[in-house]
Amino acid sequence: MNPEFRKTLEKQHYRIVGEHSGVKLCHWLKETLIRGRTCYKNTFYGIDSHRCLQMTPTIDQCTQSCLFCWRVQGFTETYLRSVDDPEFILEESIKAQRVLLTGFKGDPRVKREMWEEAQEPKHVAISLTGEPTLYQRLGEFIEAAHKRGMSTFVVTNGTTPKVLENLDPLPTQLYVTVASPNEEIYRKLEVPLVPNGWENIMKTLELLPSLDTRKVIRHTLVKDWNLGWIDDYAKLDNIASPNFIEPKGYVFVGASRERMTLANMPSHDEIREFAAALGQKIGYRILRERRDSRVLVMGHDEKELKLEF
Questions:
Q1: Model confidence over 181-238: pLDDT tens digits?
Q2: For residues 170 and 172, what is the distance between their CA atoms, to the nearest angstrom?
Q3: What are the structural domain ranges in the chain?
Q4: pTM of the full predicted structure?
Q5: Phi-psi region for residue 121, left (φ > 0), alpha (ψ -120 to 50) or beta?
Q6: How far is CA 31 from CA 37, 115, 274, in A?
Q7: Going by C-beta distance under 8 Å and a sequence separation of 6 or more, which residues neighbour residue 271?
Q8: pLDDT computed for residue 70 by the predictor
Q9: How far apart are CA 309 and CA 122, in angstroms?
């Protein structure tokens, strides 16, 4: 890892784990501890926000350089040169999270019981930054988490269909970000760093119905870039046939401010209008929503949302 990139990450309160992994406290974990405000994953799926480990096994590796990404974009590799042991990554990630939580112990706003629960995370969000499917031992990492009784969410950009096809075990819930309605917008907005990016995303969408796990398509929507094109998104969602769809508005924060403007941030009402129009096309309905996060979840039955693990 580039030393300057590492310094930047550490200044932003990332904890580097091994050669290529990292941990950072989620905003909503802190909000839950201090104010009792949970994240949308709690509202939608029942995840305890204060017991969620937000991490990545690929902190400096990705196959895209999306303009809307709010993470630090120092991506220099589309593959891993060395591969750390999955048990090591998980154990050290939990330890790193505990270090980051230390300062909350004496905060009078934080309940001691909740702080103690946070020391033992029950969920792993493999989505912090980078493309997690580039970690060659991702399946073993997921298995290690499951053996600890932890649920797992993997967020992928869909450019590695062969990895997903052979991933064993699959995560508790698999997210595929579909942030472009067509290849032209994809090339401009998501800036692929590998050849055949769009073609591979199409292969991933075709693969999804055969994968035996909960599947979510996430549409990250940026005003004046990819918000609209209902018919195109409907075609893609019909191919994937996911359990749920999450239309989510871009937020003007982090490093994305170097590439986007405040005008590119859609309102929650605009995201809701998109979701309603898309739902009419594909037979999904809005199940729940979080206005503060500009996100909705669509599906067929609200009873299916609750995660059982």
A1: 999 999 999 999 999 999 999 999 999 999 999 999 999 999 999 999 999 999 999 9
A2: 7
A3: 3-304
A4: 0.96
A5: beta
A6: 5, 12, 28
A7: 221, 247, 248, 249, 294, 295, 296
A8: 86
A9: 10
Classified as helix, coil or strand, 296 is: strand
- What number of CA atoms fall less than 13 Å from residue 241's CA on the CB side? 9
Q: Does residue 253 contact residue 224 with C-beta atoms inside 8 Å?
A: no
Q: How many CB atoms lie within 10 A of CB 55?
A: 29
CB of 29 within 8 A of CB of 52? yes
Nearest to 21 by CA among 149, 136, 182: 136
The answer to whether residues 35 and 109 touch, using CB atoms and an 8 Å cutoff, is yes
Other CB atoms within a 10 A radius of the CB of residue 292 amount to: 13
The pLDDT > 70 percentage for the chain reads 99
Is residue 75 scored above 70 in pLDDT?
no
* Cβ atoms of 145 and 117 closer than 8 Å: no
Task: Please state whether the peptide bond connecting residue 195 to the residue before it is cis, i.e. omega within 30 degrees of 0.
Answer: no
CATH number given to 3-304: 3.20.20.70
Locate tokens 């859609």: which residue? 266
DSSP conformational letter for 30 = H
Q: Which residues pair with 77 in a beta bridge?
A: 61
At residue 43 the predicted structure's pLDDT band, cuts being 50, 70 and 90, is very high
What does the alpha-carbon distance between residue 56 and residue 43 come to, in Å, rounded to a whole number? 23
CA angle, residues 143, 83, 69, in degrees to nearest 5: 85
Phi-psi region of 56 (alpha: psi -120 to 50; beta: other; left: phi over 0): beta
104 φ/ψ angles, rounded to the nearest 5 degrees = -80, -15
